[in-house]
Write a structure and sequence with these properties.
The chain is an alpha/beta fold. It has one domain: P-loop containing nucleotide triphosphate hydrolases (Rossmann fold). 38% of the residues lie in helices and 25% in strands. The protein is built from nine helices and ten strands. It has helices at 40-46, 73-82, 98-108, 114-127, 143-155, 173-188, 200-206, 224-228, 233-241, and strands spanning 2-11, 14-24, 29-33, 55-60, 63-66, 83-86, 161-165, 193-196, 209-214, 217-223. It has a six-stranded mixed sheet, sandwiched between helices. It has a four-stranded antiparallel sheet with strand order 2-1-4-5, covered by helices on one side. Helix 3 (98-108) runs parallel beside helix 5. The model has no long low-confidence stretch (mean pLDDT 93). It comes from Fructobacillus durionis. Residues 2-240 form the ABC transporter domain. It is found in: Cell membrane. Keywords: ATP-binding, Cell membrane, Membrane, Nucleotide-binding, Transport.
Length: 244
């Protein structure tokens, strides 16, 4: 479980997050949704301290941090050992093959044996039907393939929680569907995922829980069905704006 209490983040010209209190259950998929600029990505990036909140408390399993106090490198490492992030941009190592992209972190960061890391990488590639990509370089892959490899690279680190920041926003609809199928398969396997997404159809199908962020505040936190059938005027306005 990841839990945040009284989480706040202020910029000189904007309050990005204002007194956020949330629980992200393990082995469930939480979709963070909301309008552009509402604080969704700031919230997600605060969970592994890519963003440093000004105050609040962050708890991941048995580790609890007071974010108003100085945070040590050791504490940051502990947080990031439990999480893995997938960004909007594929951000693969362009000079490395798919296999090397999947094994670089486990070998160099986690100090795993090369053979163990490669075995895990092959298992992931086979599991998601991408074994034929093993020896290719990123420039030889489509955008959808690159993003799927980026997800597998995160999984190769065996994180407790997978964090995804709009992983399909830069893809056309066909490539987006390829990536969403991978995420849907992961959700079926009870992977602990927290996803910032603009795709409401995907969120409705896959998420166990919806967090609606609006202007730095939590506008909804609860079951997916309850969100999509809410009578709340702001939620109905938001969902209405997503269709035409």
């Amino acid at each position: 479980m990841i839990q945040v209490e009284h989480l706040s983040k202020h910029y000189p010209d904007k309050v990005a997050l204002d007194d956020i209190n949330l629980i992200f259950p393990a082995e469930q998929t939480t979709a963070i949704v909301g309008p552009s600029g509402s604080g969704k990505s700031t919230l997600l990036r605060s969970l592994n301290l890519l963003e440093r909140p000004d105050q609040g408390e962050l708890q991941i399993d048995d580790l609890t941090l007071d974010l108003s106090r100085p945070i040590t490198t050791s504490q940051i490492l502990q947080i990031r050992q439990k999480t893995a992030m997938v960004f909007q941009e594929k951000a693969l190592f362009t000079h490395l093959t798919v296999m090397r992209n999947l094994t670089e972190g486990p070998i160099k960061v986690q100090k795993k044996d090369k053979q163990v890391a490669e075995t895990r990488a092959r298992e992931l590639l086979e599991q998601f039907g991408m074994s034929e990509l093993t020896d290719r370089y990123p420039y030889q892959l489509s955008g959808g393939q690159q993003q799927r490899v980026a997800i597998l690279r995160a999984l190769a680190m065996s994180p407790k929680y997978l964090l995804l920041d709009e992983p399909t926003s830069a893809l056309d609809p066909e490539l987006e569907a390829q990536v969403l199928r991978v995420l849907k398969d992961l959700a079926k396997k009870d992977t602990s995922m927290i996803i910032v997404t603009h795709n409401m159809a995907f969120a409705e199908q896959v998420a166990d829980q919806i967090v609606f962020i609006d202007n730095g505040h939590v506008g909804y936190n609860g079951a997916t069905e309850g969100f999509f059938h809410s009578d709340n005027k702001r939620i109905k306005q938001f969902l209405g704006a997503m269709s035409f």
